[in-house]
Amino acid sequence: MLDYTALEALAAVVETGSFEGAAVRLHVTPSAVSQRVKALEARIGAVLVIRAQPCRATEEGADLVRHLREVALLEARLHPPEAPPVLPLAVNADSLATWVLPALAQIDERLFDLVIDDQEHSANWLRSGAVVAAITADPGPVAGCDSVPLGRLRYIATASPAFVARWFPDGVNRHALAKAPAIQFNLKDRLQDQWASMICGGQIALRSHRIASSEGFVAAALLGIGWGMNPEALVRGHLASGALVALGPAPIDVPLHWQSQRRLKVQLAPLGRAIKDAARTVLL
Question: Which pTM was predicted?
Answer without folding.
Answer: 0.75
